[in-house]
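Hi P.,

Sorry for the delay on this. The queue was packed all week, but I finally got your sequence through. Input first:
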Amino acid sequence: MAHIRVLEPDLSEQFSSPTLVEGFPGVGLVGKIAADHLIEAFDMVHYGDVHCTGVPHVAVYLAGDSELHSPVRLYGDPERDLLVLQSDIPVRPDAATDIATCLGSWFEEFDVTPIFLSGIPRESTDGEPKLFGVGTNGATGRLEDAGIDVPDEAGLISGPTGALLSHAVESERPSLGLIVESDPRFPDPEAARIVIQRGIEPLTGIDVPVDELVNRATEIRQAKEQLAKQVQQADEESTQAQPLRMYQ
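Then the structure:
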């Protein structure tokens, strides 16, 4: 049965219309790197395990914890009214809709405003990666207030993040999406930094220390390379944005 197993029930009462940052693996592992960094930087509490239909039936163990958990987990920081969705594995495209439906009902129950993250393959290495934002059900006003650019061309978002955004459109739930240019071949900590500093910070009003992310860029890239290879091998499974001109 699809559900979210809450490990810290007392934490639920401490949130008030929280913001959630989603971190499914995708192009450049941008969402994954950003989500992992937020959890570590704020020493976030392991709030719950996601047991939605579509989550692969594997168990993971975490450092310093002998208890087994789902590969998709939720972490919370009530002081900042912040939740983070962490995923250790890619999700199949045919499972993404089930996960979106499962999480969507939970978003509604707790009045969660999700920020979905996606990389779009970067065509040029000149300058910093570009970032732009999209949204649903009136949430786009927050993007304008935060000074986040609108897309300069048409495109689509696929994978689990695309399914979650599609569910938000269909159910008329407010949500935000941040799309950043990123390396399609390797983990991209620099793109994750741009997402955090130019997207998540202004949208949430939370200051996020990123020095560790910058200083450990090489180490992070090496540590995530195996997952990046898995994402590349199952390209249709990964979260990514791509211009619609590819289909025209």
